[in-house]
């Protein structure tokens, strides 16, 4: 409960709901009193009272207006809380190391940021307003009932908490199903993200049927878990309505017997009978919205898992002014419960080349993530220019490192937009020069040049042109540290051979890290670090 109540704006929702509950309950009490007076006048006194009917209409209209106003105020405040919470989680994830964003957990993370926050926000949007207003409504109604008929008041005092107790018991039973449902949603998201990321590989090896089978299985599991949650929800709704109906009937019978025996007057009896459903309405609302609270609580552990404390950014640094020397001292990197990389010792001089080789899954990209400060090492230390990578300010990483991924990102826009993504202040002549150095300008100058529109992912360019565009961006940045993560992984041998001189030109007079498992990209004079890919378990 505490993580919900500590959110900024929670107190305002509770106070607002309680104040509106006082006003609406007062109008409700007046409205039903006028209704009882009207019925008493018509049935027993055989007269009409239009003034009381007018008061009933006024109270009904004011109560409806207040309820609409309360719902709007609470909804707006709850939306602000939800937006702030989602932004906080998103920023927290952006500042976490890359082990938090592996494919195995990315699907779960996305489902938490989307559906998880939606479910957690139900606490502020649905349960909290009812939890704050129901005691006020029930308490005021109960006080008035005691002034009219203490016997009926005692009956509702006894039967009301029993309904809440049954609802809580059913809610605890439903929580397990809700946790399983959200877990199934995360599994489906993980399968979907992994399938979309590896779609070219899946198609190349003909694994479409296997991938489709995994998605169908995850979808079927989510469907079954969802139906289990709905089944319990319908059961709890039935118990709630049955309990409220039987309790109201019990009060009605007790009042009817005493009125028939002449021990109770008609007017207070009718007034109490009209107030009884209002008392149980508050409990019914609390019971029905208790499921929203249980759904939110079921997802809360996943949300708190993502809500990690932000890493304290180091002070601004000027470490990478020139090509840095790279030093790895007894570096070990964990994966799961084991060690993916262990005891690495490498020294690369300023302006040198580190060639990281090894089969797929051997930890090449993982090591580079640690080298760039995006992943913590389990043991040892990584130094750039004699300083720990953890001490380098994020702004310096962005400005002083040129990173070319095996999956370069291109946004929808123009060639100019994508080149300026790495260096916003670049001029047109500088961008043209970078394109000429990769021999891409010859292919683009008659197709629109820098103004050539690109689709998302630059799919209107060939694979070789996309690789050259990514290298052009690195040339334009002219950073002292260049990191190339298998830049020719998806190219044919002929295209790769044409890119080799371009890569040599890019790495000249810079400290460079080149990841590859192809012999064609192993340059003379490079420091070679061969990784085996064998994980050592503790």
UniProtKB/TrEMBL annotation:
<dbReference type="InterPro" id="IPR017871">
    <property type="entry name" value="ABC_transporter-like_CS"/>
</dbReference>
<dbReference type="InterPro" id="IPR036640">
    <property type="entry name" value="ABC1_TM_sf"/>
</dbReference>
<keyword id="KW-0472">Membrane</keyword>
<dbReference type="InterPro" id="IPR011527">
    <property type="entry name" value="ABC1_TM_dom"/>
</dbReference>
<dbReference type="GO" id="GO:0016887">
    <property type="term" value="F:ATP hydrolysis activity"/>
</dbReference>
<keyword id="KW-0812">Transmembrane</keyword>
<feature type="transmembrane region" description="Helical">
    <location>
        <begin position="153"/>
        <end position="174"/>
    </location>
</feature>
<feature type="domain" description="ABC transporter">
    <location>
        <begin position="326"/>
        <end position="538"/>
    </location>
</feature>
<feature type="transmembrane region" description="Helical">
    <location>
        <begin position="50"/>
        <end position="69"/>
    </location>
</feature>
<dbReference type="Pfam" id="PF00005">
    <property type="entry name" value="ABC_tran"/>
</dbReference>
<feature type="transmembrane region" description="Helical">
    <location>
        <begin position="12"/>
        <end position="38"/>
    </location>
</feature>
<feature type="transmembrane region" description="Helical">
    <location>
        <begin position="232"/>
        <end position="257"/>
    </location>
</feature>
<dbReference type="GO" id="GO:0005524">
    <property type="term" value="F:ATP binding"/>
</dbReference>
<feature type="domain" description="ABC transmembrane type-1">
    <location>
        <begin position="15"/>
        <end position="288"/>
    </location>
</feature>
<feature type="transmembrane region" description="Helical">
    <location>
        <begin position="127"/>
        <end position="147"/>
    </location>
</feature>
<protein>
    <submittedName>
        <fullName>Thiol reductant ABC exporter subunit CydD</fullName>
    </submittedName>
</protein>
<dbReference type="InterPro" id="IPR014216">
    <property type="entry name" value="ABC_transptr_CydD"/>
</dbReference>
<dbReference type="GO" id="GO:0042883">
    <property type="term" value="P:cysteine transport"/>
</dbReference>
<dbReference type="InterPro" id="IPR039421">
    <property type="entry name" value="Type_1_exporter"/>
</dbReference>
<keyword id="KW-0547">Nucleotide-binding</keyword>
<keyword id="KW-1133">Transmembrane helix</keyword>
<dbReference type="GO" id="GO:0005886">
    <property type="term" value="C:plasma membrane"/>
</dbReference>
<dbReference type="InterPro" id="IPR003593">
    <property type="entry name" value="AAA+_ATPase"/>
</dbReference>
<dbReference type="InterPro" id="IPR027417">
    <property type="entry name" value="P-loop_NTPase"/>
</dbReference>
<dbReference type="GO" id="GO:0140359">
    <property type="term" value="F:ABC-type transporter activity"/>
</dbReference>
<dbReference type="InterPro" id="IPR003439">
    <property type="entry name" value="ABC_transporter-like_ATP-bd"/>
</dbReference>
<dbReference type="Pfam" id="PF00664">
    <property type="entry name" value="ABC_membrane"/>
</dbReference>
<keyword id="KW-0067">ATP-binding</keyword>
């Amino acid at each position: 409960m505490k993580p919900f109540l500590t959110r900024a704006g929670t107190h305002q929702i509770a106070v607002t709901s309680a104040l509106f509950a006082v006003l609406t309950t007062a109008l409700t009490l007046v409205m039903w009193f006028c209704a009882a007076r009207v019925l008493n006048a018509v049935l027993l006194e055989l007269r009409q009272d239009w003034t009381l009917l007018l008061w009933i209409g006024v109270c009904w209209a004011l109560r409806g207006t207040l309820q609409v106003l309360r719902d709007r105020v609470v909804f707006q405040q709850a939306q602000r809380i939800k937006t702030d919470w989602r932004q906080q989680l998103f920023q927290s994830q952006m500042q976490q190391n890359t082990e938090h964003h592996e494919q195995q957990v990315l699907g779960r993370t996305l489902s938490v940021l989307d559906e998880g926050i939606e479910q957690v926000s139900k606490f502020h949007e649905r349960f909290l307003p009812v939890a704050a207003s129901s005691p006020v409504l029930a308490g005021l109604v109960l006080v008035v009932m005691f002034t009219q008929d203490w016997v009926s008041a005692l009956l509702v005092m006894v039967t009301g908490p029993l309904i809440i107790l049954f609802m809580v018991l059913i809610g605890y039973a439903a929580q397990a199903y809700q946790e399983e449902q959200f877990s199934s949603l995360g599994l489906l998201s993980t399968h979907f993200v992994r399938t979309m990321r590896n779609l070219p590989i899946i198609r190349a090896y003909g694994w479409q049927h296997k991938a489709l089978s995994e998605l169908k299985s995850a979808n079927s599991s989510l469907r079954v878990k969802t139906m289990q949650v709905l089944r319990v929800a319908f059961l709890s709704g039935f118990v709630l309505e049955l309990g409220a109906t039987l309790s109201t009937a019990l009060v009605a019978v007790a009042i009817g017997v005493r009125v028939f025996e002449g021990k109770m007057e008609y007017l207070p009896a009718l007034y109490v009978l009209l107030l009884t459903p209002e008392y149980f309405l508050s409990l019914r609302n609390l019971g029905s919205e208790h499921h929203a609270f249980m759904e939110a609580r079921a997802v809360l552990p996943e949300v708190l898992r993502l809500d990690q404390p932000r890493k304290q950014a180091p002070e601004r640094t000027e470490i990478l002014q020139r090509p840095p020397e790279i030093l790895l001292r007894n570096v070990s990197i964990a994966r799961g419960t084991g060690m993916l990389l262990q005891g690495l010792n490498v020294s690369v001089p300023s302006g040198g080349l580190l060639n990281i080789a090894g089969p797929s899954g051997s930890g090449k990209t993982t090591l580079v993530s640690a080298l760039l400060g995006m992943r913590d090492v389990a043991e040892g230390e990584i130094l750039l220019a004699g300083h720990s990578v953890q001490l380098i300010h994020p702004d310096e990483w962005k400005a002083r490192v040129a990173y070319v991924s095996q999956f370069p990102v291109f946004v929808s826009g123009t060639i100019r937009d994508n080149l300026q993504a790495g260096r916003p202040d670049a001029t047109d002549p500088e961008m043209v020069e970078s394109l000429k150095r990769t021999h891409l300008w010859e292919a683009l100058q008659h197709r629109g040049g820098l103004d050539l529109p690109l689709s998302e992912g630059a799919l209107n360019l060939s694979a070789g042109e996309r690789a050259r565009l990514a290298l052009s961006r690195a040339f334009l940045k002219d950073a002292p540290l260049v990191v190339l993560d298998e830049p020719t992984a998806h190219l044919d041998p002929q295209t790769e051979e044409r890119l080799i001189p371009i890569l040599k030109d890019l790495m000249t007079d810079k400290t460079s890290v080149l990841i590859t498992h192809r012999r064609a990209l192993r340059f003379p004079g490079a420091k070679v670090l061969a990784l085996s890919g064998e994980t050592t378990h503790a």
